[in-house]
Each structure stands twice: as C-alpha cells, then as structure tokens.
From TrEMBL:
CDD domains named among the record's database cross-references: TM_PBP1_LivH_like
Stored InterPro entries: ABC_transp_permease, BCAA_transport_permease
Molecular functions (GO terms): transmembrane transporter activity
Organism from which the protein derives: Variovorax boronicumulans
Protein's recorded name: Branched-chain amino acid transport system permease protein
UniProt entry tagged with the keyword Transmembrane helix: yes
Cell compartments where the protein resides: Cell membrane
TM helices/strands, residue ranges: 29-53, 65-91, 97-114, 145-164, 190-214, 226-255, 261-281
The keyword Manganese is assigned to this record: no
Membrane topology: Multi-pass membrane protein
Length: 291
C-alpha cells in the first residue's frame, strides 16, 4: 500500500480532532464515576442537549456561538443538579447496575422528546465567523475551527485534571467519596459537593456538544453511537482515572485515524478490539488501580 506522507499526517490531525471529543466526553464520565461511583449512561444525551440547545438559541434567538459555549454548559449543569437531587441521590448505596439503568432510561426519555419534535435529520450550524477560514500547513489545509476544537479540549481537560489531582478542592472531592463523615468534620458540605461534581460532569458533556455541532450533524441521536465508543475509552483508560480518560481518548482518536489509512474497514471496531485486549491483560485498564 503506497500512502503519501501528507495523507498520513492529515489523518493523524483528523484523528486528533476526534480524539479531543473522546477525551472531553470520557473525562466527564471518569469524573462522575470516580467521585460519585455512578455509571452515567445519560452522558451521550447531555452531549446532544448541549448541541441542540446551542442550535435552538442561534436559530430562534440569534444568540451567537461564543455566548452558547458558556451558556449551554451552565444550563446543562443546572439540569444535572436536578437529575442528581431528584434521582441519583437515592441509588448511591446500591449496585452500579441501578445507576446505569436509571441513566439509560433518562437517555431514552430525553432522546425521545427531541426526536418527536425535530426528527432524526441533521440540523447543522456553521462555525463562528472568526474561525471559518483555514490554514495551509503545507501537507494539508486545516480548518481553523478543527484546530480550535483540539486546543479548547486540551485546555479544559488538563485544567480539570489539575483541579482534581493537585488542589485542596480536588483532595476534598476524592476524600468525600471514600470517607464523607471525615470530610464533613472539616466543615465541608459533602452532599452539595457531590451535586456540583455531577453538574460539572454534565457541563463537560454539553461543552463537547457545542464544540462538536459545527463538525457533525446536530441530531437527537448524535450522542447514541458516540457514547458507546466513549465508554470503551473509559474502560481502556481505567474507570475513574482522570488522566487515563484524557490520554486514552486522544490516543485512540489518533489510532482510529491511522486505521482509516491502513485498513479502513476496521476503523469502526479498532477501539473495541483494543478494549478486549486491554481487559484480558489488565482488567482495571491502563491507568486504573488494581484492587
């Protein structure tokens, strides 16, 4: 197979863009599972909500992209507060299966509502004018918006990792999941902290949705296929591992891009093949802690 270097580098960059979406979505899942012990299957629906709300605000209210990049995560974060306080708080002491089934049911409900209103056809919106041009890199012409997606995702991902792993707030969050009574003794409101943690994970999904909409079709089902891949990313990186979610998401996006060059037929399954191999060798994931 004769593959030119420009074509290879182009696929690497496109793979990095997809990997950015995987990283930020799997980060939200890892934060929620690592700190709340809940498998949040509603993450794909929240990703879709971020994109659809942005499309609605731009289409009906004339709100621009940059405002919605902040407003959509805030609104979906508030929705996450409602979900956590009304539903999830009752199942924390139960088996993981209950959380998965509850959030799966919530996903079907959310997707069903928007599908009945908008159908399943795509509702794309254009990239903001500031990022609508492209840059000639020599081996490819890179749309500036795709470069923005990578930069924005990396900044959010590593800022989140730093807060959780390197600050006092992060220490309280981690300790609150293991010994809530001890943390409460220091005057920390653990139930509020848990609620805000879930809301933040939901906001990350919405942020990814706003970023993704100019790249993919906005549809009530846009998160359905993506969330399966993202769950595989989280399993490979290690359930609850923040850095594992980020690095694995970026890495698998690149591997997927390379697979499209050398063996396109396997590009849709390569992530799952890697997941099987990793689970056979290291069941806790690449960055997960063995129990």
């Amino acid at each position: 197979m004769n593959i030119s270097l420009p074509a290879l580098l182009s696929q690497l960059l496109l793979g990095l863009v997809n990997g950015s979406f995987y990283a930020i979505l799997s980060l939200g899942l890892a934060v929620i599972f690592g700190l709340l012990n809940v498998i949040n299957f509603a993450h794909g629906a929240l990703f879709m909500l971020g994109a659809v709300l942005t499309w609605m605000a731009m289409e009906y209210l004339g709100v621009n992209y940059w405002v919605m990049l902040i407003a959509a995560p805030v609104l979906i974060g508030l929705f996450g507060v409602v979900i956590e306080r009304l539903l999830l708080r009752w199942i924390y002491k139960l088996d993981h299966l209950y959380g998965l089934l509850l959030t799966l049911g919530l996903t079907l409900l959310i997707e069903g509502v928007f599908r009945s209103v908008y159908g399943v056809s795509g509702l794309p919106y254009d990239a903001p004018e500031l990022l609508s041009s492209a840059t000639d890199l020599g081996f490819m012409v890179l749309p500036n918006y795709r470069a923005w997606v990578v930069v924005a995702s990396l900044v959010i991902c590593f800022a989140t990792w730093y807060v959780i792993e390197k600050t006092r707030l992060g220490a309280y969050l981690r300790a609150g999941t293991e010994n809530p009574r001890l943390v409460e003794a220091f005057g920390v409101n653990v139930p509020l902290m848990i609620t805000l943690t879930y809301a933040f994970g939901c906001a990350l999904a919405a942020f990814a949705g706003v970023l993704a909409a100019p790249v993919m079709q906005v549809s009530p089902l846009m998160g359905q296929n993506l969330i399966i891949v993202v769950f595989a990313v989280v399993v490979i990186g290690g359930m609850g591992s923040i850095m594992g979610a980020i690095l694995t998401g970026l890495g698998l996006g690149v591997i997927e891009g390379l697979t499209k060059v050398f063996y396109p037929e396997a590009s849709s399954t390569v992530v799952f093949v890697i997941m099987v191999i990793v689970l056979l060798i290291r069941p806790a994931g690449l960055f997960g802690k063995e129990k």
